Each structure stands twice: as C-alpha cells, then as structure tokens.
From TrEMBL:
Domain Endonuclease/exonuclease/phosphatase, residue spans: 114-327
Organism ancestry: Bacteria, Bacillati, Cyanobacteriota, Cyanophyceae, Oscillatoriophycideae
Alphabetic keyword roster: Endonuclease, Exonuclease, Hydrolase, Nuclease
Annotated GO MF terms: endonuclease activity; exonuclease activity
Name by which UniProt lists this protein: Endonuclease/exonuclease/phosphatase family protein
Domain of life according to the entry: Bacteria
InterPro entries, alphabetized: Endo/exonu/phosph_ase_sf (IPR036691), Endo/exonuclease/phosphatase (IPR005135)
A Pfam family the protein falls into: Exo_endo_phos
Residues annotated as transmembrane: none
C-alpha cells in the first residue's frame, strides 16, 4: 500500500500528468487568448502532443494564444512568442474575452498526416488487438489524413476510423488478403475528388492505394499514395520502389507518398538498402526526413531489435517538394507490443500546402 501511494505521489509530482475531467471542458475557440495558472512553482507543464509528453514548462500567469484543441477541448495547443505546445485545460485561469484573433501561424493551409503500420493480427490473432490500435490513433486529433498498413479487414478499419472522429471516412484496399492498405480522411477538411484506386503493376504483394484529394481551405489538389513494400523479397521490393518513383514522375499534380517501405535506413550508418536508393534516385521524390535525424536522437520506427532503422516514411513529389514540411517519429514504449499494441511507431508529417 505504501509503495502504491508513493507511485501515485510521484506521478502527480512529475509534470502534472492528470487527465482532464470531462465536466471541466472549456468554452474556448482557436484564436482566443488564455491566461495560464500553475499549480506549483515549476510552472505549467507543456507537452509535445495532446497526451503526456512533457517538453517544458510555461511561466505562471502568462498569456498564450490557442492555436488548436482536441475534439473535447480537454487539451489546448497554445503559443507564446518563444514556445508552443499542448497543455491540459485545467491550467487555464481564464479565457480573455474579445480576444478572438487569427492564430499567429494560421493552420488553414497546413496538412497534417500520418502513416501507421497497425500490424494485422492475421498471423497471430493474439498479437495485436484493434482497440489498442484505436487507442493510439485517438492521441493524434490534429491528423486529418491517415495512411494505414496491415489492416486485416473492414471491421478493424471501421473501428480505427471511429477512433479518428465522426468527421472521418475511410477506404480499404482490395489487395493483400488480411494484410491490406487503407486511407482515412477528415471530410470537413478534405474532399475526395473521384475514387480511391488500387494501382496494379507495382510488383508487390499489395497494390499501392491512391486517392486524389482537395484541401478545402485553399482548393489545392494532390495525390496521396499508401504503400507497403515487401519485407523478405528484395527483387520485388526494388521493383516497387522503381514503380512508385516512376509513377510520381508521371503525375501533373503534387504527390504525397507514405507507408512502410522496408528500406532499412540504418540510424547509425545513415544509409538504406537498394529500395531506399531507388526511391531517392534522380531527385524525383523528396524524403521528409524526421527532425530527430538532425539531432541524432531518432527512435527506430519498428520495435523489432533486428531493425534499428527507419522503415516507415513520408515522401513528396512534383510541386509538393517546394512545400515547407517536417516530420516526426512518435515516441512509443515498445514493451506495450506484447500487450496487443502494434510493433510500429506512427510517423507524422506537417506540410504547408501552397
């Protein structure tokens, strides 16, 4: 009992990781200013994401601008001149009236997307459970476009889509058996122009899944492709890489290409396999490298210790190569893999569409 009490006290003391009470959700809008209050001398905990991911602290009493919220407004993304990040709504002392202004960097032309290998339980039904996948997805309310790999069936995809929110819809790929690709998107921010297509001729076990979308905020149209390259068959994987690169080069619209490419980009040697080289050949595609590479502190995107490398990634082609972009590998405790969570980390990207 004493040990349990000590753990509880430690959690409370460490960054205020207390989830918001649903009854306390604030009436606050993006663009409004809020005055913050700290509950201890360390300041207001500031998080990287809308879940416990402490990155720093803000001073007590500071005024910040709200630039985003989660769906229930229990987490607020706030910005002051020198910092930005997520806070729990309980640290808001007051919402400043008549303070509705455009956010410092209006997010309307920003496209936030993610690729996630959800590890289909096809080969081991006890390995991954859809509810655990959905739990991870709910932590990223800012994402409006998802590329999913290893989706077992329509039932699983519907559960994932529901976790994204009521404004989302999704399409499941037709190839891959119980190990398929899928696209999910927020219909309030993106319009599907036409249908989502399964491209044949790639040489892989699963045809790439492609959708033509319009970002409603500014009318920009682009193509979004999801892939899962073969793991064990090098020749087929290389053929897939050539196919994707050549396909992008033939398009007149900007292209965004995501997925699990199995290109084994070694974090120590800073090089990948032949498929990686083929994807980057002739500068047709641009890899949106995770920010952590610059600081040399990247996590691998897959929990298997045999793959201390990046397998999952986001590429852009055509005029999308001119867009300002960044990506990140979402931290995940790999010990949870044994409890029903997927063995891949989510890779997110933010693109300033122009």
């Amino acid at each position: 009992m004493k040990r349990l009490l000590g753990i509880v006290i430690l959690i409370v003391a460490w960054g205020g990781f207390i989830f918001a009470d649903p009854s306390l959700a604030l009436d606050v809008e993006v663009g409004q200013q809020v005055q913050l209050k700290a509950t201890n001398p360390q300041g207001v905990p500031l998080h990287e994401n809308p879940f416990p991911s402490l990155k720093g602290r803000l001073p007590d009493g500071v005024t910040a601008t709200v630039t985003a919220t989660d769906r229930e407004k229990h987490w607020l993304k706030v910005q002051i001149p020198s910092q930005q990040g997520w806070i729990i709504e309980k640290y808001v002392a007051q919402v400043l009236e008549d303070s509705v202004n455009p956010p410092p960097n209006p997010p309307i032309n920003r496209l936030q997307l993610a690729t996630y290998n959800v590890e289909s339980p096809n080969f081991n039904p006890r390995d991954t459970t859809p509810d655990k996948v959905a739990e991870e997805i709910t932590k990223h309310p800012e994402v409006i476009l998802w590329g999913l790999e290893e989706v077992m069936d329509q039932d699983d995809l519907e559960q994932f889509t529901q976790a994204m929110g009521s404004k989302f819809t999704s399409v499941l790929g037709e190839t891959g058996g119980q190990d398929r690709l899928a696209i999910a998107y927020d219909q309030s921010q993106l319009e599907l122009v036409g249908s989502i297509n399964n491209l044949s001729g790639s040489g892989g076990s699963r045809n790439p899944l492609v959708g033509k979308f319009k970002l409603l905020a500014n009318g920009t149209e682009f193509l979004f492709m999801v892939n899962h390259f073969n793991r064990r068959e090098e020749e087929r994987r290389n053929q897939q890489a050539d196919f994707v690169r050549n396909w992008s080069n033939q398009q007149s619209l900007p292209t965004i290409i995501v997925g699990d490419f199995n290109f084994d980009f070694d974090l120590n040697k800073r090089r990948g396999n032949t498929a990686f080289n083929k994807l980057n050949q002739d500068n047709i595609l641009k890899w949106i490298q995770p920010d952590c590479l610059a600081s040399n502190n990247c996590l691998s995107t897959q929990c298997n210790p045999n793959f201390n490398s990046i397998l999952d990634a986001v590429f852009v082609g055509g005029t999308a190569k001119n867009w300002s972009a960044s990506s990140s590998i979402v931290p995940f405790d790999c010990s949870k893999d044994a409890t029903g969570f997927p063995d891949h980390r989510i890779v997110k990207a933010e693109l300033k569409v122009s």
